[in-house]
Amino acid sequence: MAHFPKYMTTVLCIPRYQKQLPYVMTSVYSQIARSEKQTEEFRVLELVKKSAQRSARRKAKKIELLPPRTNVMPVDQDWSSVWPGPRSFHPASVPLPLRQGYNKKGVSPGKFANAELMKIPNFLHLTPPAIKKHCEALKKFCTPWPEELNDENCEKHFPVEVITSDYCFSSPDIREPMARIVILKVKLSALTLDKHAKDKLLRLVGERYDPSTDILTLTTDRCPLKKQNYEYALYLLTALYHESQKTEPWESEKTVADMEYYDWEQNVSYKNVLGTLNWPQSVKDTENFKLTPEMEEYKKAISDLMNKGEDLYTISKYKEATKKLLNLPEFLPLEYTTA
Questions:
Q1: What are the start-end ranges of the E strands in the chain?
Q2: Between the CA of residue 297 and those of 277, 305, 317, 318, what are the distances in Å?
Q3: Residue 301 in contact with residue 275, Cβ under 8 Å?
Q4: Fold category of 151-252 in CATH
Q5: What secondary structure letter does DSSP report for 53?
Q6: Which of 34, 94, 114, 235 has the greatest number of CB atoms lying within 10 Å of its CB?
């Protein structure tokens, strides 16, 4: 027995809807029949949905690629026109059979579709003819090197030499740690130092001074930037220079026994040599006495003997310097050598 819905009872009671009763009853019975059919049948569970009928696939349009440029490139072509500036590697423009990479079971990959060749920087724009063209273009802006400014004048007017390094490589980080290092070189003779200041400066710098070349080398790498290390190197040179000029109160109280090295001019040997060479006269002003070449050689020989230690070389040098200083003959006569 079909049951009428509640809203149908309301419709049947209204007089103005009684004329449309046959149509209403037909629609009601169709809805009741549909609802009873839905309650009798179970809903089908579709585990795999049936795909709808596919439409015809569009055919891909094949794009015809042009042949590589290297196939039609003449042998005598101007390479600077092909590769005028820095750019990533392009296999169709480089007429070279390049290979890059590693293949375990075969040869290295070729240049086409090779990411290894594209990653690394290339210098194909810096060929000798291209560099020559750049130089010719810049020549009109350059002046000739002054002939009077030779190496000696450069060392005289520009005694400080600064050495830095720049690096170019492929990396996610553009900053190279080694690029921050600054090396400052200066000749010690270019600095106006007296005897006390030079001795104190050499003690402060330690092994940074090379006596064979008379060059003082300062290397700075503490700061993260190159400019900071450059300024720090100049600060070190300035601080060393002014610190060496200072004379502490305790330095005047030092005696010969307190000296860290053998100073011939402050030793008794210096006064004995002056007294022997100027006998029977006496030398009063020993500080401003001008040394002869023989005395300079003797000074160097005895200083090396006392500071570096005794060996065959220092002893032989001391022997030769003593003979020249006292004007002794090279070989003594036979009567002086026999007993």
A1: 160-163, 182-187, 209-210, 215-220
A2: 15, 12, 9, 9
A3: no
A4: Double Stranded RNA Binding Domain (3.30.160)
A5: P
A6: 94
**Backbone phi and psi for residue 175, each to the nearest 5 degrees, phi listed first:** -100, 120
The domain ranges of the chain are 6-37, 99-142, 151-252, 256-337
The residues, any chain, with a CB within 8 Å of residue 127's CB and separated by 6 or more, are 79, 80
Are 213 and 264 a contacting pair, CB within 8 Å? no
The DSSP secondary structure of 216-244, one letter per residue, reads EEEEE--SSSHHHHHHHHHHHHHHHHHHH
> pLDDT tens for residues 139-196?
999 998 888 888 888 888 899 999 999 887 766 667 788 999 999 999 999 998 888 8
Using alpha carbons, list the distances in angstroms from residue 324 to 294, 313, 329.
Answer: 6, 17, 8
Query: Each residue of 86-134: pLDDT tens digit?
Result: 999 999 999 999 999 998 888 999 999 999 999 888 899 999 999 999 9
> What order do you get walking across the sheet with 209-210 strand by strand?
160-163, 182-187, 215-220, 209-210
